[in-house]
Amino acid sequence: MPDRNAVKAYLLDLQARIIAGLEAFDGQPFLTDTWTRPAGGGGITRLIEEGRYFERGGCNFSHVMGDQLPPSATAARPELAGRSYEAMGVSLVLHPRNPYCPTVHMNVRFFIASAPGLPDVWWFGGGMDLTPYYPFEEDVRHFHSTCRNAVLPWGESEYQRLKDWCDRYFFLKHRNEPRGVGGLFYDDHGADGKVDFDSAFALTRNVGDAFLPAYLPIAERRQATPYGERERDFQSYRRGRYVEFNLVFDRGTLFGLQSGGRTESILMSMPPIVKWRYDWHPEPGSPEEQLYTEFLKPKDWA
Prior knowledge:
This protein has 302 residues and is of the alpha+beta class. 40% of the residues lie in helices and 26% in strands. The strands form two sheets. It has a seven-stranded antiparallel sheet with strand order 1-2-3-4-5-6-9. A two-stranded antiparallel sheet has the order 7-8.
């Protein structure tokens, strides 16, 4: 049987550890907003805006319940439609001010779906991905290597499966374009009954615990890189892709909105400054073109 209390305790501790690391780096405190959900459950939103380094960022813990799984949660497993559910997780997005440091996302979550007279179905999901604007190969390789090491206890093939899943998932189909340079992604892990709880939980802990060592060294290297209006303008343009993905494709965002979640916490992932342009293309040979030609394509970075 799944130990929901152990999962919740881990998630709360993970949020606290991540916030402690980010506050130590930025030098500004994250605000704390504890909330309850009328339909059942609640959470803790930790947010920073106009920090010394992070222009906007948040790390949410949520634990919610409902009478019926929303469509975003049953898209891959339609046989669970109509079941009641319990869901908990930690979701994080950071938007640095400096365009030379990438935006980053991480999420780990746990679901239990229940129906009278039937055994519960549980599963884990999660992952992390990097979205650079002016990427450095050493940063991308570091991020992917840390992700690989987190999953390697389950085998090289399992790492490759989750890496490839991330490349497919964080893809803007309407643009035929990756959101960033990928990382790890998995969902419905355990729902088919072929993975035991302890192994699935251990994988999720490894992914969550890998976030700070995957990202903070990149932030530390790039925090003082000089930039100007050109770089900020391109960053704002590329942030538009982030918004498009989160509002059109992201299962976590859709689940939160479809389940009547707290809108402020769900949309804390949105960047504070964004731009769209009509049919824009980077100048040939420019650093902006380099992002498209050398980094926005699946590679075995690790």
